[in-house]
Each structure stands twice: as structure tokens, then as C-alpha cells.
Specification:
This protein is mostly helical. It has helices at 2-13, 25-59, 70-92, 94-116, 129-147, 152-155, 163-169, 173-225, 234-251, 253-270, 280-333, 338-357; strands at 64-65, 68-69. It has one domain (2-357). The longest helix has 54 residues, at 280-333. The relative contact order is 0.14.
Length: 358
């Protein structure tokens, strides 16, 4: 399958192009670990927030059979599940692992392209192939030591320079230029543009969902005030609204969309100048400049602040949901005081929403 893909790419592009299968094992391992950590983060966060809503649902109804309050049991089970998800988030810290491994994967990928097309210090005429190869391997090792020194999954396989990388490096300047344009610049433009749109749409969706749930909670409270509605749905609506707001803020869709849009603009400014270098020395300098520009905007600019903000928001989710669960448990413990407890849950949810938004 990989060879067939290469033949198709070479046929239409006219030059060798690196795919993810052609990159060093360091990239593949880091990419795999980043995806695993991301899935873990998403699943645990979703479970934490969903179980809060489930607990609110059980707390809004009275289900009694054989002198057992099954609604209270359901709420307690949901509470235990939420506490378990919160504990795993704090112990595994998937947020940090996700960003660290993603940084390692993208850094090694960028360095690989720099070497394969003869850019920066890996210029074709700047030094011998042995020196360039030794420098490349040394830099890969430095990346591994800085970002994942104790991870067996990343350090187990020593393959660093693939046949496809050697093939691309041995081509002419024009072929390497075309390969870099189609396999790197175009690919990055497409990816960043698409992801910016996805995050922008996600921000709109979750923002409107939060507003709709808050409006529903207000409507339910109004109907309960005038005894038009006899089922307590205020706690469910407010808990769901807080969970939606927490999900929106923890993923920082607005910040990510803005950063990716900025990177797309910078890549769009770089791409038209790809034909400017006429010699190997000029090409090496141009690739190094393009590499530093995109790396600065996509990795070392907004990324650290987004990581810190996301980590802080994730850690606050536990406290938020614990407050919600506490209000619901109080309501279950005193079924005769449902109206007062519902008001307490509403106040807790409102204050929690403010805490998340800060």
C-alpha cells in the first residue's frame, strides 16, 4: 500500500514526496503517543462532565422501589464515576503528555524535512553527507532527550533516516523545491486551514448550546416559580449548561482557531517566495527562514499559553463538578427540601460557570 501511494504521488507531483510512513521512527512513536494521550484526555473529560449531568438527572426525580431510593443510588454511582474520572485526570495528566508528544512529533517532522530538502545547516553544498547525517541524528537525539527521555515507546527503535529521505535529498534543487512546496507547504496550508475552520465551527456550536441550556434553565425556573411546571428540571439544565461551558473553555476552540488562522496567513505569505532561491546556498537559507517562521507561529508562540490555560481549566473542572455533585447529593439527602435545593444548585452552577470563564 505504501509503495502504491508513493507511485501515485510521484506520478502526479513529479518528484519524491515524504509521507508520514517515510519519517523517522521517533516521529511515528511520538505521534502515536500523542494521539493516545489526546483520546484519554477527551474520554475522561467527557465522562467527568457527562456524569455530572447524569447525576443531576437522577437527583431531579424520586424513584423508590422496595424501600430503596434508586434515584439516590444512581446519583451516587454517577458521583463515584465522576470522582474516578477526576482522579485519573490528575494522576495520568494526559493534557501534558498530549502536548509534549505532539511537540516532539512536529519538531522531528520539521527537522526531517529540513534535512531531506537540504535546508538550513543541512545544505547540500555546505558540508559532507556524513557531517550532515551526524548532525541530523544528533538533533533528533536532543529532541528526544528534551521532550521524552524516559518513554520506551519513543526510544525503542533506532531507525532515523529512511530510504525515502535519502532519495529526496539526492534529487536536484528544482525537484526538492517542488517536493517541499507540494509535500510540506501545501500540506501544512491545507491542514491548518481545515483545522482552523473545525475549531471555529466547534466554538460556535458549543457557544450556542451553552446559551440554549442556560435559557432552558431560566425558563424552567420561571415555570416552577409560578407552579406551572411540577417537575424539577432546573438542576438538570444548569448542570448541563455548566458542563457545556466547561467543555468549550477547556478546549479553547477560539484560541486554537485564531492561532491556526494566523499560521495559515504566514504560510500563505511564504509559499509564493519558494521559487526565489537560485542556488543551493540561497535555498538552504530560505528553507531555514521558512522553517523558523512557521515553527515560531505554530509552536513557540501561542502554544505554550494555550497549554497552560487548558491545563488550568482542566484542573478546575474537578472542583466545578465536585460542587455540582455536592449540591445534588444535598438535595437527595433531604427530599423534602427540593425547591430550596434546586435554588442552591442553580447558584452553584452559575458561580461555577463564572469560575470556568475566568
Amino acid at each position: 500500500m505504501g509503495d502504491e501511494l508513493h507511485r501515485v504521488i510521484d506520478h502526479y507531483c513529479g518528484q519524491p514526496v515524504l509521507t508520514d510512513d517515510d519519517l523517522p521512527t521517533l516521529f511515528k512513536a511520538a505521534d502515536r503517543e500523542a494521539e493516545k494521550a489526546q483520546r484519554r484526555l477527551v474520554v475522561l473529560t467527557a465522562a467527568l462532565l457527562a456524569l455530572a449531568v447524569v447525576s443531576a438527572i437522577f437527583g431531579s426525580f424520586s424513584i423508590e422501589h422496595a424501600r430503596k431510593y434508586w434515584a439516590a443510588v444512581g446519583s451516587l454511582v454517577s458521583l463515584a464515576g465522576g470522582l474516578g474520572a477526576s482522579y485519573l485526570l490528575s494522576q495520568w495528566n494526559p493534557n501534558k503528555h498530549w502536548y509534549d508528544f505532539r511537540a516532539l512529533a512536529e519538531s522531528s517532522k520539521s527537522l526531517t524535512w529540513l534535512y531531506a530538502v537540504g535546508g538550513g545547516d543541512f545544505g547540500i553544498d555546505a558540508r559532507s553527507e556524513q557531517e550532515a547525517r551526524t548532525d541530523f541524528l544528533g538533533r533528533l537525539g536532543d529532541l528526544r532527550q528534551q521532550l521524552a527521555p524516559d518513554t520506551p515507546a519513543v526510544t525503542s527503535d533506532p531507525v532515523a533516516i529512511t530510504d525515502r529521505m535519502r532519495q529526496l535529498r539526492s534529487t536536484t534543487l528544482d525537484e526538492r523545491r517542488d517536493a517541499y512546496r507540494s509535500g510540506r507547504l501545501h500540506q501544512q496550508l491545507t491542514w491548518y486551514r481545515g483545522r482552523a475552520g473545525e475549531h471555529s465551527r466547534a466554538r460556535t456550536f458549543w457557544g450556542w448550546l451553552t446559551f440554549a441550556l442556560q435559557s432552558a434553565g431560566f425558563s424552567f425556573a420561571f415555570l416552577r416559580l409560578f407552579e406551572i411546571l411540577h417537575v424539577d428540571l432546573v438542576g438538570i439544565a444548569t448542570t448541563a449548561a455548566v458542563s457545556a461551558a466547561a467543555w468549550l473553555r477547556s478546549h479553547d476552540h477560539a484560541g486554537v482557531a485564531e492561532a491556526y488562522s494566523q499560521t495559515t496567513l504566514e504560510l500563505g505569505e511564504i509559499e509564493p517566495t519558494v521559487n526565489d532561491p537560485a542556488t543551493e546556498a540561497e535555498w538552504a537559507t530560505w528553507v531555514a527562514s521558512a522553517w523558523c517562521s512557521t515553527s515560531r507561529s505554530s509552536s513557540t508562540g501561542a502554544e505554550p499559553s494555550r497549554r497552560a490555560n487548558a491545563a488550568a481549566r482542566i484542573s478546575r473542572l474537578s472542583a466545578v463538578v465536585a460542587n455540582i455533585h455536592g449540591s445534588l447529593f444535598t438535595r437527595l439527602s433531604r427530599p423534602a427540601a427540593r425547591s430550596a435545593a434546586a435554588q442552591s444548585a442553580l447558584r452553584t452552577a452559575s458561580s461555577s460557570a463564572v469560575a470556568i470563564s475566568q
